[in-house]
């Protein structure tokens, strides 16, 4: 068998032949042979500006409808940054314990803590944020967690804010100061984006520690979502405490931003056995609170400090068998 010594034909494009013969570099050689310090600098600047644009879009919410991310809360643009101090004595003699009952809603917490820290700093409200994280296997008990926050808030605070993690104030005229005259319902029915009945006292409520003690705290019988606020309204009346609400606020139901997404995180609204009938708890509260602190951690979220208290809330199955999911 004979083999031809002829070379296989090679197909050249005109520019390729020219570049090969004249030493002209092809586009593929650009990064390896033409990359200069100035070009690298230019690429870095493009990357930086692109990143800033992305942050701005996510901050203003233009990306909120992006496929796959619509369940996440829209991050509010930060308030003008003020002093990082949270306990500046020149701001006044009172200090607030901002108590947040919490379980698993981390995406909301990442928004809430830095936002509220900046908001209160701008208003020169001395404060400390307590995240009372329920880590047991019982149903969520908002009232008991607020009781725990009251007990664990220390002697350096003299009033509390019972504050939902998914409610952000949008009006700087809202008063978060010491409620000297009586309990102050910041998220009043005419301002709250969802709840408008007259006896509503949920969302955000300020009380002096003396007034909270006079009510014996909140009832520990309410496992699952809802009704603990309605029972607490009756406690305020029983303690002869006058309830105050904001005046002169013209932003209506846009006064607060509600960042909870019910489609992504459904509330536990199940009513079991005697839980189906609403009853006032005349004896329970701080006096029969049973809990255990698993750990206490000082953490910072985007530069905003808070105290996370991981808590086991105890349940008396004979008194409230509905504390179990089953």
Automatic annotation (TrEMBL):
Keywords: Glycoprotein, Glycosyltransferase, Golgi apparatus, Manganese, Membrane, Metal-binding, Signal-anchor, Transferase, Transmembrane, Transmembrane helix. It catalyses: 3-O-(beta-D-xylosyl)-L-seryl-[protein] + UDP-alpha-D-galactose = 3-O-(beta-D-galactosyl-(1->4)-beta-D-xylosyl)-L-seryl-[protein] + UDP + H(+). Pathway: Protein modification; protein glycosylation. It comes from the Eukaryota. It is an enzyme of class 2 (transferase). GO terms for biological process: carbohydrate metabolic process; cartilage development; chondroitin sulfate proteoglycan biosynthetic process; cranial skeletal system development; glycosaminoglycan biosynthetic process; hatching behavior; heparan sulfate proteoglycan biosynthetic process; skeletal muscle fiber development. SUPFAM superfamilies: Nucleotide-diphospho-sugar transferases. One of its GO terms (molecular function) is xylosylprotein 4-beta-galactosyltransferase activity. The chain crosses the membrane at residues 36-55. Its cofactor is Mn(2+). Its EC number is 2.4.1.-. Residues 183-258 form the Galactosyltransferase C-terminal domain. The keyword Transferase applies. Residues 92-176 form the Galactosyltransferase N-terminal domain. GO terms for cellular component: Golgi cisterna membrane; Golgi membrane. It is a single-pass type II membrane protein. Required for the biosynthesis of the tetrasaccharide linkage region of proteoglycans, especially for small proteoglycans in skin fibroblasts. Responsible for the synthesis of complex-type N-linked oligosaccharides in many glycoproteins as well as the carbohydrate moieties of glycolipids. Belongs to the glycosyltransferase 7 family. This is Beta-1,4-galactosyltransferase.
């Amino acid at each position: 068998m004979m083999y031809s010594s002829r070379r296989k034909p090679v197909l050249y494009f005109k520019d390729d032949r020219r570049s090969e013969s004249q030493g002209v570099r092809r586009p593929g050689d650009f990064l390896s042979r033409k990359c200069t310090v100035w070009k690298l600098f230019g690429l870095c600047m493009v990357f930086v500006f692109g990143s800033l644009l992305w942050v701005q879009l996510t901050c203003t919410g233009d990306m909120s409808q992006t496929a796959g991310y619509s369940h996440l809360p829209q991050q509010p643009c930060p308030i003008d940054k003020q002093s990082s101090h949270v306990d500046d004595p020149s701001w006044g003699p009172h200090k607030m314990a901002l108590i947040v009952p919490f379980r698993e809603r981390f995406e909301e917490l990442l928004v809430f803590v830095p936002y509220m820290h900046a908001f209160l700093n701008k208003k020169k409200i001395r404060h400390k944020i307590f995240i009372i994280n329920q880590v047991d296997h019982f149903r969520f008990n908002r009232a008991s967690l607020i009781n725990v926050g009251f007990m664990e808030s220390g002697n350096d605070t003299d009033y509390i804010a019972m504050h939902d993690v998914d409610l952000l104030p949008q009006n700087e005229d809202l008063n978060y100061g010491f409620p000297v005259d009586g309990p102050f319902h910041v998220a009043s029915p005419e301002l709250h984006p969802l709840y408008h009945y007259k006896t509503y006292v949920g969302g955000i409520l300020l009380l002096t520690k003396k007034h909270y003690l006079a009510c014996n705290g909140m009832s520990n019988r309410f496992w699952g979502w809802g009704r603990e606020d309605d029972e607490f309204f009756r406690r305020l009346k029983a303690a002869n405490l006058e309830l105050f609400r904001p005046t002169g606020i013209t932003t209506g139901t846009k006064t607060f931003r509600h960042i909870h997404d019910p489609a992504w995180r459904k509330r536990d609204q199940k009513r079991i056995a005697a839980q189906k009938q609403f009853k006032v708890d005349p004896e329970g509260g701080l006096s029969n609170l049973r809990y255990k602190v698993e750990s206490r951690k000082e953490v910072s979220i985007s530069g905003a400090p808070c105290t996370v208290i991981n808590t086991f809330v105890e349940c008396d199955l004979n008194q409230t068998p509905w504390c179990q999911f089953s």
